[in-house]
């Protein structure tokens, strides 16, 4: 199988703008690949949107069974790519092979989960019978159902090349809903995106789906992203990425004649709250577990624990975390841009007079980034809103609190988060009602005595949260409820029996 560097636009592999080509970056070797990636042109973005709109007219009429078979087939074609997919992605991301194998399985299982959800839906249409005898006015017969929105633009994520990218959760949930998908591939792993598009192309042919039900647009030019979300035939956007890029895309959407839903998952610092009895009982062990969670994916998970809130002085906990982290090696990050942003953010922390620079892992290559750990007290953290922002990479703050009141004040100062964890003994958790009450209005998922890293794909999962963790607090980007983002309600009143199967 040979990568071409092209985009898949409505069933055709197109070369795009040869003057605007770019190359894959290989983090482990700190070098570039030799395959040019040809950036799509604005005209090709327009063509993809128009073709997707035409495909929508056919795809929205497919049955739940047909779409379920399509999703399963996509997963099968991903597996058919074999080790070549893993090898290419390993080069483009530097992620360990075991991690990529697990993420590939998760992606395939995610497609199967949506297929099962189509065959056994969580919600059935709501039907209410007519009441012609009701006074003062008769009640008509009504049925509440849903319709797909139309073509959906999906933005691949840098940190999850399978599960949150080309054929990841946003694509799977949109296809489940009956919406064609136009993916803007992430420039951090364009060869991986192309291979996944090859798998999709085969599934489309095998399942006799309209060819424009899926397109992949390759580009590292931000103007293409804005052209995509501004396309008048695109009806919703699924995005995983930074707050800054999301804000820029939202501004383009606000300028449209029709403002469309923008479902952005933007990350968070995922506070880890340790209660007094727990830190006395399991402090050193818990400190090491948090370090290990921080180092997963080299801190490049949206659920990475970036804020550890422990009782003052927390000496044994702090020393254990410090000693453990200093013994760890360094690693590369996904892109030079991420590395630069991380280094700048950490340098700003290091010169902050309120922070104690606790630990740094051992730097093993000059292009690696070390894991870093800092400490400060709750009062200083609450006052400095800059410290509440996510640092994308292996960096965490330990914040110490004096008592319950200060802990509650700290929680109340937090912005919206994807997750938070409370680590406590059984007796502490039993009396933590006020803490839980305050914290649950800050998060999309509240965890007890577990690390935040890892998101289960299931019907009861919520991966979202109050702004700025996500752009729509009512939505999730993981789990079967994610499909609801790309559906709209419709009520049928006095529906004739002859049309009852619509």
UniProtKB/TrEMBL annotation:
<keyword id="KW-0560">Oxidoreductase</keyword>
<dbReference type="InterPro" id="IPR016161">
    <property type="entry name" value="Ald_DH/histidinol_DH"/>
</dbReference>
<protein>
    <submittedName>
        <fullName>NADP-dependent aldehyde dehydrogenase</fullName>
        <ecNumber>1.2.1.4</ecNumber>
    </submittedName>
</protein>
<dbReference type="GO" id="GO:0033721">
    <property type="term" value="F:aldehyde dehydrogenase (NADP+) activity"/>
</dbReference>
<dbReference type="InterPro" id="IPR044151">
    <property type="entry name" value="ALDH_KGSADH"/>
</dbReference>
<dbReference type="Pfam" id="PF00171">
    <property type="entry name" value="Aldedh"/>
</dbReference>
<dbReference type="InterPro" id="IPR015590">
    <property type="entry name" value="Aldehyde_DH_dom"/>
</dbReference>
<dbReference type="InterPro" id="IPR050740">
    <property type="entry name" value="Aldehyde_DH_Superfamily"/>
</dbReference>
<feature type="domain" description="Aldehyde dehydrogenase">
    <location>
        <begin position="37"/>
        <end position="465"/>
    </location>
</feature>
<dbReference type="InterPro" id="IPR016162">
    <property type="entry name" value="Ald_DH_N"/>
</dbReference>
<dbReference type="InterPro" id="IPR016163">
    <property type="entry name" value="Ald_DH_C"/>
</dbReference>
